[in-house]
Amino acid sequence: MLTNESVERQSPKMLALTALGITLLNPHVYLDTVVLIGSLANADPSPIAFTIGACLASLFWFSALTAFAPKLKVFLSSPLRWRIFDAVIAAHFDRRLRCNWRLMRCCSAFFKVDQLSSLKAST
């Protein structure tokens, strides 16, 4: 188990460079920002309102992560609690995927039947 004594202290400059590297070299940042959010913003009738809303949601999300990090550190200090946390996340995503599949079946009038069967076979 990782303890405070076994962690090597780094300079603030090295910490900032590491954080920038993890942030800017992560391909998901660009996929999420440019492709996903960009395509949603392009379809929105009010791009300024969408941009302001996306910025506020991002600010809220990362502020909440920062605020709750000390509490999560205490909660996730045990391997058993990590397993429970992972199981809850997995159950949540499983439920979301099933809900999305049901939604797709409800909207099947917009899809060809062979497209739906190939989608179901791949999941």
How would you describe this structure to a colleague?
This protein has helices at 12-24, 27-43, 47-75, 79-106, 113-122. The chain is extended and about 55 Å long. By secondary structure, the protein is mainly α. 0% of the residues are buried. The mean pLDDT is 77. The chain is 79% helix and 0% strand. Helix 2 (27-43) packs antiparallel against helix 3.
| Assembly state of the chains shown | single chain
Q: Roughly how many Å is the radius of gyration?
A: 21 Å
Q: What separation lies between the terminal Cα atoms?
A: 37 Å
Mean pLDDT: 77
Which spans have pLDDT < 50 for at least 5 consecutive residues?
none
- Determine the strand fraction and express it as a percent band: under 5%
DSSP E strands, number: 0
Order of helices and strands: HHHHH
Query: How many strands, which pairing sense, and closed or not: the largest β-sheet?
Result: none
The helix/strand class is mainly alpha
- The percentage helix is over 70%
Write down the overall geometry: extended
Number of helices: 5
